[in-house]
Amino acid sequence: MSISLTISAIIFILIAARQWLPPAIRIWHIMTLGAAALLALGQITFKDAFFAVDWDLILYLFSVFSIAAALYDTGISAQISKRILSRQTPNTMLASYALIMASCAALLTNDAAAVIGVPIALLMARDLNWNAVPLLILLCATVTVGSMVSPIGNPQNILIANAGQFDNMFLVFVQWIFIPAAITMLFSILWLKRFLKVDKSSHEVGIQPSTDNQITQKWPPLLSTALLIVLIALGNVLHGIEGIYLPTLGQIGLLACSPIYLASDKRRRVLREVDWTTLLFFVSMFIVTGSLLESGSLQLLLHGSEINLAEAKTVTFVSFFASQLFSNVPVVEIYLNLLHKKETQTLMMLSAISTAAGNLFIISAASNVIVLQQAEKFGVKPFNFWQFFLLMLPVSLISVAVSYFYIIYFGSL
């Protein structure tokens, strides 16, 4: 076993045992120390570590964090929460919240939906006296499932859409993945609502925007949100047209959040409220993953065996389990490079299962980590590793099974 793989396993174990560690130790501490250890031991050079980081994604997350902080401070998140709470029954409230967050994930990526959805979930938990943990876990499930149906819903889908060179990538993803995603979404709501118990302490959480130094200009964050949606939509309409420069997600994010930093009278407040520790977590995670990939562990497993990488069972098994250790984005990137023939069914299976893999463990998807750390930022004790695993295990199994059999069925038509 390589040193990189050993340290990655230690990181995984420490995150799993975090609930028994001192409260001061956060998940970003563990990942950052792991990255530092790999650098100190020479498992990855500083130059390679720098290029292992997806800086475009970091810029996009920074932009989304900025927009979400401004939306919260202007009270817009509270208004969305009140609109959801105006529904007549708890079931319709949950369904409305899940559909809004799933749609947000499909349009703006699952990471953006996770950032925006946390304060709304905490406000709902406070007003309904619900335990926040299952509601936050429902948020994780819905943004992951919602991102499955869109070629821009998550980074691995973007890689697959580019590799597939589809004439209409949105239509292809909807045809192959919408039905299993809808079934998984319905099951997630019905399953997780059973754990929404009354918690009298939830109303004590200080999740209301403060009246002191509160941002009163609502148009900059609203304009930023609109710009983000329009620019992403425009980029996908123009996708595939030669001779047109298409900005990256990071560039789109920076342009979208520019009204906040150029026109808002509280730009410094927003900058302070950006979740810098979560950004540090992701920088460290990319370094750890880069070291793993340099060790050749996954490449040796896939290329060294004589398995048919295009076979549906192989795609399902490898993309699901490898994503738990190596993260789904690098797994998909390597898998695409090793595929000799990129058939639509193979690509859709790789997309659906690698995304569904994010529902098993906290660190299986970036959006899960964002939800956890955003909740801690608001002073809320979120879910731990084992709470997440036990509640999400049925969701993971249903998602993988339904996706597998439906894609096999649809591919045979």
DSSP summary, beta strand count: 0
Which sequence of SSEs, written as H and E, runs from N to C? HHHHHHHHHHHHHHHHHHHH
Shape: globular
Domain count: the total is: 1
Q: Could you describe the largest sheet, including whether it forms a barrel? A: none
Radius of gyration: 21 Å
Which parts are unreliable, with pLDDT below 50 for 5 consecutive residues or more?
A: 209-213
Estimate the strand proportion: under 5%
Distance between the termini: 44 Å
Task: Give the structural class.
Answer: mainly alpha
Oligomer: single chain
Task: State the share of residues found in helices, binned by percent.
Answer: over 70%
**SS summary, helix count:** 20
Mean of pLDDT? 84
Account of the 3D structure:
With 413 residues, the protein is mainly alpha-helical. It has one domain (26-37, 46-412). It has helices at residues 3-16, 27-40, 46-52, 55-73, 76-85, 90-108, 110-128, 132-148, 155-164, 169-192, 219-237, 249-263, 267-273, 276-295, 297-304, 312-326, 328-338, 344-356, 366-377, 385-412. The longest helix is centred in the last third of the chain and has 28 residues, at 385-412.
